[in-house]
Structure to design on (288 residues):
């Protein structure tokens, strides 16, 4: 662990939080699956065919539209009732274990839904890709946003949207380098949180403009990245008679990866916010 990570670990008092914090660091170091790389090489002509059905431009449009659409699929009132809260931010007052338990329910539901959706669209082979990929991206955004709520975070600002995109990028990375870039963005957003005291919450107009520009760049690169990742995962889906099974498995695995990325990122964000005052006084970061 680096000095900063060691500082956080030493500040944490809860044994459960310490255990989960170590798991967060382990997740960050895990390389993307080599299986998708192997499949992508063997079925290169097939992946090219899939990309022709769902080109990068269509992937970019899906990413731009699905995040907003996914929020309409979240019933925040029911969520608050289930969690016995009146405001999403109250989740930050619960224990990390309680937050994890709620996230577990959301995660498992999303995996089950992805399995069903992937099976139905996978049965139609290549033709179903045009419907399947936007649907799974919408579910991915919904999963990230709702898991964020489990830890007291709602996607409202440009920084929040950038966090969601970065989580999607980390989960859908094809290489460790792509994952590290996504994690670096998340680290920069984490730094903003640590620099933001309860006396200085709003960002300046200049910073907000930068965030919007960064978001546009992220969507362009993310569309290309996810296009490669999903087509490699789904290469076997075009084969007759096995498409349904492959579609169900691939979608379930993709959402499982998305869910764990969201959980690890928001777990760390929850821990940092809980111990922010101690981190500041421990000279973790200089406050302006």
């Amino acid at each position: 662990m680096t000095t900063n990570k060691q500082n956080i670990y030493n500040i944490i008092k809860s044994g459960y939080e310490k255990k989960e914090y170590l798991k967060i660091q382990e997740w960050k170091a895990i390389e993307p699956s080599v299986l998708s790389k192997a499949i992508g090489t063997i079925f290169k002509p097939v992946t090219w065919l899939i990309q022709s059905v769902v080109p990068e431009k269509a992937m970019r449009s899906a990413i731009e539209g699905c995040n907003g659409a996914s929020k309409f699929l979240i019933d925040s009132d029911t969520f608050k009732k289930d969690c016995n809260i009146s405001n999403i931010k109250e989740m930050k007052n619960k224990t990390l274990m309680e937050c994890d338990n709620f996230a577990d329910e959301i995660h498992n539901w999303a995996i089950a839904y992805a399995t069903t959706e992937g099976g139905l669209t996978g049965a139609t082979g290549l033709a179903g890709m045009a419907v399947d990929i936007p649907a799974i991206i919408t579910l991915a955004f919904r999963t990230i946003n709702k898991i964020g709520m489990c830890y007291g975070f709602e996607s409202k600002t440009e920084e929040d949207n950038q966090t969601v995109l970065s989580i999607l990028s980390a989960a859908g990375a094809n290489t460790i380098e792509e994952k590290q870039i996504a994690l670096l963005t998340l680290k920069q957003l984490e730094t903003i949180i640590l620099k933001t005291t309860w006396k200085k919450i709003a960002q300046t107009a200049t910073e907000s403009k930068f965030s919007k520009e960064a978001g546009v760049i992220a969507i362009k690169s993310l569309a290309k990245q996810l296009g490669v990742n999903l087509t490699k995962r789904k290469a076997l889906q075009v084969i007759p008679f096995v498409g349904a099974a492959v579609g169900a498995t691939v979608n379930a695995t993709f959402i499982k990866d998305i869910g764990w990325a969201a959980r690890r990122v928001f777990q760390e964000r929850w821990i940092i916010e809980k111990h922010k005052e101690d981190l500041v006084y421990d000279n973790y970061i200089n406050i302006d």
Q: What stands out?
A: Confidence is low (pLDDT under 50) at residues 197-206, 283-288. The radius of gyration is 19 Å.
